[in-house]
Amino acid sequence: MRHPIAGSALAFALALFLSTAAAHAAGPSTSGVVNVNSATAEELALLPGVGPTKAQAIIRYRTEHGAFKRVEDLAAVKGIGEKGLEKLRPHVALEGKTTAQPEK
Predict the structure, then answer these.
(1) How many domains does the chain have?
(2) DSSP letters of the chain?
(3) Residue 67 within any structural domain of the chain
(4) Residue 98 in contact with residue 36, Cβ under 8 Å?
(5) pTM exceeding the 0.85 threshold for the entire prediction
(6) What is the pLDDT of residues 71-97, one digit of tens each?
(7) Which CATH number covers residue 76?
(8) What mean pLDDT is predicted for residues 18-41?
(9) What is the band of 14 on the pLDDT scale with cuts at 50, 70, 90?
């Protein structure tokens, strides 16, 4: 017969693992905002769901089309759809200083 605590411990460990994996998949957690009109690729990568490839795509789009005038303009960048835009919205600025820092 299995010990009931062993099953609970296993379930807890699995839940902890899955929640940690989901947090890592969502990207780094940040505080502050990223000015998408002046940010470097490293700063853009602080945004949720943005890695090096999307950061370069944002910079390429900005170089070819000029400054983003509305946050919604990010949807025109290859790899950023409506869902991605909604994740980015609270972390994006169009002017001012980039203040985003990775949370520890």
Answers:
(1) 1
(2) ---HHHHHHHHHHHHHHHHHHHHHHT---EES-EETTT--HHHHTTSTT--HHHHHHHHHHHHHH-S-SSGGGGGGSTT--HHHHHHHGGGEESSS----EE--
(3) yes
(4) no
(5) no
(6) 999 999 999 999 999 999 999 999 999
(7) 1.10.150.320
(8) 69
(9) very low
